[in-house]
C-alpha cells in the first residue's frame, strides 16, 4: 500500500520545477539584504564590530529555530514549514528596511531575529522537499536546485547593485523584494507534494517512525557529514556577509564595487553548481569535493593576501567555485538512506545553517580587531577540516551514490521512453538483478 496516489511524469516534473522556484526565492531572500549591507552600516552608523554584533540578531533567531527545525518539519511537514518560514522571514526583512529608514538599531535587531527564524525553518524544509523531489524524479539534481538558489542570489545581488547605483531607498528595496519572494513561494507550493511520497505505509513508514531526530544526532556518520557541511557553509556564509564590506574597508573601494564583488562571488557559486552535476556523476562525489575544497582554500588565500583589487576579484571567483558544491552534495550524502532521509537531511541542514548564519557575526568581531580579510583566516581552518572529512561522504554500505535512491514503491521515470515503473528494491549492479515492473 502506497502512502499517496502515484504521480504522473508531468506532476513530478512540476514538483521539481516548483522546488527550483523555492530555492530561487531563497536566493533572492539572502541577496536582498546582503547585497546592501553597506547601506545598513551607513544608515545605522555602525563600524564592523557593532555591525557584527547586529548580525548576531539574525544568528539568535536562526539558532532558536535551527535547533527545532528538524522536529518542526517532521511534525508539521515541509510544506507547512515553508509557508510559515517565508512569511516570518519576509516580515523580518521589511522591518530591517524600516529600521534603516528610521535609523533605529533596536527595530533592526527585531527584524533580523525574524529573518533568522524564518530562514532557518524554510531552508531546512526546502532541503527536505528537494531530496524528496529528486528521488521521485529519478536522477541526481540536488546541485541544480542549489544552483537556482545561486541564480536567485545573482539576480538579487545584481538588482541590489543597480538599486545602490540608482539611489533606490533601502526601505523600498526590501519591501518589493518581500512581496516578490512571497508570491513565488506561495504559487510554487501549490505544485509541491509530501516528503513521504512513494514510501510504503507499512514497512517504510514504520522504519521512518522509529528513526527520530535525536537518533540522527547520535549517528556518527550523519554528524561527520554535518561537520563537512559546516566548514563549507562557513566558506559560503562568510563571503555573503563580509565580501562587500571587505572590499570597501580593506581594499578601499566604494559601495558599488563592494556590491559588484558580492555579485562576482555568487556568479561563481552559480557556475559551480550548475556545472557540478556532470562532474559528480562522472568522477564521484569524494574526488570532486576534494578538488572543490582545495579551490576554496586557494581562492580564500588569494583574496586575503592579494595586494591588488583585480587579483582579489580572481580569488573571489575561485573561492566561489570551490565553495559551490559543498552544501548541496552534503545534503545528497545525508539522503543516501531513503528511509532516514528526511530526518538526516534536517539534522545536517541544522548544522550547516548554524554555521552559515552563526559564523559571520563572529568574523565581524575578528574583523574589528584584525581587519576583515585577516579575520577570514579562521575560515581557512574550517575549509581544511571539510577537505579532510570528504572521505566520510562515501555512500554507506547498501546505499547508492548516483541517481535516485528508491524505497519500496517509489515510481521511476525513464526519460527516453517516458515510462513510469516501480522499483521493488534498490537495484543490484549484477546482471541477474530483477527488472522493474511496468505500471499500467
UniProtKB/TrEMBL annotation:
Keyword Membrane set for record: yes
Where the record annotates domain Major facilitator superfamily (MFS) profile, the positions are 15-398
One cellular component term (GO) for this entry is: plasma membrane
Q: Name one GO molecular function term.
A: transmembrane transporter activity
Identify the InterPro entries for this entry.
MFS, MFS_dom, MFS_trans_sf, MFS_Transporter
Q: How does it sit in the membrane?
A: Multi-pass membrane protein
Q: Transmembrane segments in this chain: where?
A: 15-34, 54-74, 81-100, 106-128, 140-158, 170-189, 222-239, 259-281, 288-305, 311-330, 342-366, 372-390
Recorded protein name is MFS transporter
In its UniProt entry, the species of origin is given as: Rothia aerolata
Amino acid at each position: 500500500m502506497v502512502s499517496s496516489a502515484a504521480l504522473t511524469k508531468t506532476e513530478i516534473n512540476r514538483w521539481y520545477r516548483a522546488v527550483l522556484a523555492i530555492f530561487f526565492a531563497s536566493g533572492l531572500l539572502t541577496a536582498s539584504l546582503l547585497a546592501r549591507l553597506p547601506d545598513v552600516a551607513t544608515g545605522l552608523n555602525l563600524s564592523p564590530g557593532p555591525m557584527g554584533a547586529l548580525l548576531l540578531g539574525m544568528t539568535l533567531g536562526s539558532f532558536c529555530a535551527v535547533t527545532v527545525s528538524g522536529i518542526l518539519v517532521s511534525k508539521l511537514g515541509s510544506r507547512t514549514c515553508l509557508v510559515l518560514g517565508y512569511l516570518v522571514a519576509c516580515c523580518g526583512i521589511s522591518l530591517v528596511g524600516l529600521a534603516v529608514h528610521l535609523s533605529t538599531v533596536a527595530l533592526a535587531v527585531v527584524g533580523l531575529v525574524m529573518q533568522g527564524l524564518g530562514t532557518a525553518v524554510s531552508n531546512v524544509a526546502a532541503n527536505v522537499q528537494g531530496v524528496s523531489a529528486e528521488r521521485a524524479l529519478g536522477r541526481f539534481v540536488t546541485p541544480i536546485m542549489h544552483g537556482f538558489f545561486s541564480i536567485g542570489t545573482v539576480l538579487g545581488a545584481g538588482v541590489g547593485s543597480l538599486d545602490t547605483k540608482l539611489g533606490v531607498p533601502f526601505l523600498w528595496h526590501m519591501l518589493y523584494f518581500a512581496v516578490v519572494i512571497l508570491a513565488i513561494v506561495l504559487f510554487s507550493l501549490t505544485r509541491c507534494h509530501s516528503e513521504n511520497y512513494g514510501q510504503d505505509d507499512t514497512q517504510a513508514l514504520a522504519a521512518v517512525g522509529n528513526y527520530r531526530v535525536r537518533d540522527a544526532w547520535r549517528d556518527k556518520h550523519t554528524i561527520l557529514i554535518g561537520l563537512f557541511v559546516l566548514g563549507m557553509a562557513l566558506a559560503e556564509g562568510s563571503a555573503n556577509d563580509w565580501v562587500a564590506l571587505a572590499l570597501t574597508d580593506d581594499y578601499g573601494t566604494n559601495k558599488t564595487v563592494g556590491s559588484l564583488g558580492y555579485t562576482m562571488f555568487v556568479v561563481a557559486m552559480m557556475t559551480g553548481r550548475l556545472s557540478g552535476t556532470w562532474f559528480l556523476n562522472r568522477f564521484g562525489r569524494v574526488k570532486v569535493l576534494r578538488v572543490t575544497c582545495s579551490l576554496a582554500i586557494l581562492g580564500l588565500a588569494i583574496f586575503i593576501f592579494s595586494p591588488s583589487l583585480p587579483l582579489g576579484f580572481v580569488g573571489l571567483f575561485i573561492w566561489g567555485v570551490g565553495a559551490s558544491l559543498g552544501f548541496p552534495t552534503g545534503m545528497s550524502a545525508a539522503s543516501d538512506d531513503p528511509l532516514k532521509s528526511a530526518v538526516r537531511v534536517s539534522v545536517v541542514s541544522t548544522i550547516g545553517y548554524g554555521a552559515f548564519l552563526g559564523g559571520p557575526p563572529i568574523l565581524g568581531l575578528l574583523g574589528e580587531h584584525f581587519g576583515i580579510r585577516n579575520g577570514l583566516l579562521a575560515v581557512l581552518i574550517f575549509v581544511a577540516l571539510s577537505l579532510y572529512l570528504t572521505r566520510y561522504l562515501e555512500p554507506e554500505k547498501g546505499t547508492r551514490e548516483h541517481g535516485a535512491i528508491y524505497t519500496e514503491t517509489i515510481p521511476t521515470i525513464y526519460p527516453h521512453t517516458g515510462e513510469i515503473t516501480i522499483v521493488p528494491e534498490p537495484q543490484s549492479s549484477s546482471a541477474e538483478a530483477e527488472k522493474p515492473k511496468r505500471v499500467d
